[in-house]
Design a protein that fits this description.
Elements (H helix, E strand, L loop, with lengths): L5 H30 L2 H20 L8 H9 L9 H5 L7 H15 L1
Length: about 110
């Protein structure tokens, strides 16, 4: 989901998952009473389906900065901060003196 609707999407997702869990809590004992141990096969099948969906659609964000994750989900970069990998390889440098000077100026303005 893009940034503007992410909060609404997460809220809808959480509500849906909790509603499903509540319904399933009441359905599981009925299923166990009617079809017995076969209910466990249905439950395991659902778990396998979810595992496959996670393996296909899950986006790996380990080791990425917030800017890189934003680029992954949005398709465009919203920040002027260079990527860590580009800096690590030495293709781009950060002017730390200019950043320190800017921070010092901002601190003096806030006093």
């Amino acid at each position: 989901m893009n940034y503007t609707i992410r909060a609404n999407g997460v809220a809808l997702s959480s509500f849906s998952l909790n509603a499903f869990a509540l319904i399933f809590t009441f359905i599981m004992p009925i299923g166990l009473g009617n079809i017995g141990w076969k209910m466990y096969i249905i439950n395991a099948s659902w778990d396998i389906i979810v595992l496959v969906l996670i393996a296909i659609y899950w986006v790996e964000t380990k080791g990425k900065t917030l800017e890189e994750i934003d680029t992954l989900f949005e398709g465009e970069k919203h920040s002027s901060v260079p990527d860590i990998e580009v800096i690590r390889k030495g293709k781009e440098k950060i002017d730390t003196e200019a950043i320190e000077e800017q921070l010092t100026t901002e601190l003096h303005q806030n006093e």
